[in-house]
Design goal:
Blueprint (H helix, E strand, L loop, with lengths): L1 H19 L7 H4 L3 E12 L13 E15 L3 E14 L7 E14 L4 E13 L3 E2 L6 E3 L4 E13 L4 E14 L7 H5 L1 E15 L2 E14 L23 E13 L4 E13 L10 E16 L2 E9 L21 E13 L4 E14 L5 E13 L1
Antiparallel strand pairs: 1-2, 1-18, 2-3, 3-4, 4-5, 5-8, 6-7, 8-9, 9-10, 10-11, 11-12, 12-13, 13-14, 14-15, 16-17, 17-18
């Protein structure tokens, strides 16, 4: 009898230890073991892999293969995680350079200081290899040299000051480094370091409604030494990438609303104030524009959801400033919309099947309009 009691006590202690482990965001399978491996095999049809105009579209069937490894150490108050994912996309219609490759490394540390104070640290590193492609028509480039490095680091702290008031503070750093070099290259246009600081106050106005007041401060520093256009000594100040550097101040109000356990929405509206510290005399010294970030999410099954959203803000682009105000592209607009639908079916604990459809459309005043349809289906195994 004593032995039975002792065994029951040990089992209870083991169960208590598992419950005490801090494991936010982990699936039940990830919580049950130190490491997990998974592999995705998916077939797809893409009618415009390079986001090209109608006359340059090259449709293709393809195969995607993506293995990954995750290691998570869940302690009483701390979660330490590492993830590596490799993604290969093979396009059967390409005569050469028929595959794109992506390597993604993620590190994270989540720590709950107390029940009211939490700290999150994360870093994501991406190395993407997408080769040159050409249409074969007058040797015009269908897609420029796409390989790039992107590193995203984030530090966040959240505090519950009172049962009704909370405060979130975060800093995010993004580094972009494109492989293509030279005058007018993607490196000249888009190599940059972005800094973003966010301070958000939260007010529990109602049981299912949280009011938001937020201030965001951003800095964009372009790092390339190449010209954004011609390497002309006379025009060098005009084509200097640092001319596009910005500092921004954004103030918003908003709300987080939970309508049901499955349906929620978040809205932030306000104004974005942008300054250009390295502007020329012909440039405007500042700009003001509306800021909108709104989305609604319907979680129809655990891990499966439908999300609709819209974002309106000023951000970096691959279209450089014109030499003088009122240039050829001044005041022109590009509108991009995306819609995606995904259906997932859990075959068993280790295997799931999914299928989906994505639609992209860009309407451009500078001749870059396109549409893109992608249909995919596949299997994912996780152990």
């Amino acid at each position: 009898m004593k032995k039975i009691i002792a065994s029951a006590s040990l089992a209870a202690l083991g169960a208590a230890g598992l419950q005490a482990a801090y494991a936010p965001g982990l699936s039940p399978l990830e919580k049950s073991k130190l490491w997990t491996v998974s592999a995705l095999v998916r077939g797809f049809y893409d009618d415009n892999p390079t986001d090209s105009t109608r006359s340059q579209k090259q449709e293709s069937f393809g195969l995607e293969v993506s293995p990954s490894l995750a290691v998570n150490v869940a302690l009483d108050q701390t979660l330490i995680g590492f993830n590596y994912t490799y993604d290969l996309r093979f396009y059967e219609a390409r005569p050469t350079n028929d595959a794109d490759h992506t390597h993604q490394f993620k590190l994270k540390l989540n720590h709950t200081i107390t029940e009211r104070y939490k700290l999150e640290v994360s870093d994501s590193f991406y190395y993407v290899q997408e080769p040159d492609l050409t249409t074969g028509i007058a040797a015009r480039t269908l897609r420029t040299d796409q390989p790039y490095i992107h590193n995203n680091g984030r530090l966040a702290f959240s505090a519950e000051l009172t049962p009704l008031l909370g405060l979130d503070a975060a800093y995010q750093n993004d580094l972009w480094d494109f492989n293509e070099r030279g005058s007018g290259s993607l490196s000249a246009l888009l190599d940059r370091v972005e800094h973003l600081g966010v301070l958000t106050a939260r007010w529990q106005a109602l049981p299912n409604t949280v009011g938001l007041l937020s201030y965001k401060f951003g800095i964009v520093d372009h790092t390339s030494k190449d010209s954004t256009a011609a390497n002309d000594p006379v025009l060098s100040p005009v084509t200097d990438p640092t001319r596009r550097d910005t500092t921004t101040h954004t103030v918003t109000v908003g709300a987080d609303q939970s309508f049901t356990s499955q349906l929620s929405a978040r809205v932030e509206v306000g104004a974005q104030f942008t300054d250009y510290p390295n502007r020329l005399a012909v440039d405007p010294d500042s700009a003001v524009n509306p800021y909108v970030d709104a989305n609604a999410t319907w979680t129809y099954n655990p891990g499966s959801y439908l999300r609709l959203g819209v974002v309106h803000k000023r951000n970096a682009t691959d279209v450089a400033f014109q030499p003088v105000k009122g240039g050829l592209d001044d005041g022109k607009v590009e509108l991009l919309g995306t819609v995606g639908v995904n259906c997932s079916y859990q075959v068993n604990t280790f295997i799931s099947a999914d299928a989906g459809y994505n639609y992209d459309r860009q309407d451009s005043d500078i001749g870059r309009s396109y549409t893109r349809n992608v249909i995919y289906f596949g299997l994912r195994a996780t152990y």
